[in-house]
Amino acid sequence: MNKNNQIYLLIALLIPVVMIICTIFFIALSKAKLHPQQNFIYMLTKDSNPYYCLQQSKAKLFPDTYPVKSGSDVKPADCSSTKVYQYDFNQDKGLLLTLEAASQLRPSLPSEAKSPDGFEIKSYCGTSTLSGWAPSRHGSDICVTNGEQAKRLAISHYPDNSGDYYYFYFLGWTQHGGNTHQ
Fold it and tell me: Strand ranges (DSSP E) for 39-176?
């Protein structure tokens, strides 16, 4: 084999290696960018009337903005399975809180879905487990997004492995990024 053919062969072998290294670099770079400065508070509930449980939680967290509703149009429910969490981006997991502890974190209103640094929480994002070829089957389809980039969060609709589906509700961004948990 002459010298020119060896150079072409070497270039042909190096191109895929360089492309793989570039792909790994850009994936790592995009994941580093998806790290909000603030944590957020959310709730999971499997109760028969999840909207009622959401309203009760909002009334306790934001009593001035969301007063407790009562009357004939309100269908009370047992909200005993409702759990409130703070999602900690440093640990990449949800930390169980009481509503009282959550209110101490001074969350933003749920209507303020975008964080001050431009991130949003999507309860059903379009990412999948096989690079776009199959839907998520493990119930962890809650993402943080910033523009076109999305990162799946470690939140499951099946947190207790009982097979019961839990509804996810975003409750607000914490006013400070500090980590507090029980």
Answer: 40-45, 83-88, 93-97, 120-122, 143-146, 149-152, 167-173
User: Contact 105/116 with Cβ under 8 angstroms?
Assistant: no
Residue 181 domain-assigned? no
Q: Residues 67-113: pLDDT tens digits?
A: 776 655 556 677 888 899 999 988 888 999 998 899 888 888 877 87
51 inside domain: yes
Domain encompassing residue 62 = 38-173
Contact status, residue 38 vs residue 113, Cβ threshold 8 Å: no
Q: Which residues contact 171 (CB under 8 A, 6 or more apart)?
A: 40, 41, 42, 43, 57, 58, 61, 84, 102, 107, 110
> In angstroms, rounded to a whole number, what is the distance separating the alpha carbons of residues 49 and 107?
24
Q: Whole-angstrom Cα distance, residue 178 to residue 58?
A: 21
Quick one: 10 and 95 in the same domain? no
* Cα–Cα nearest to 122, from 177, 170, 71, 182: 170
Query: Whole-structure pTM over 0.85, yes or no?
Result: no
Answer for the pair 158, 166: CB distance below 8 angstroms, yes or no: yes
- Tens of pLDDT, residue by residue over 25-53, are 877 766 656 778 899 999 998 877 888 88
The CA R_g of the chain, rounded to the nearest whole Å, is 22
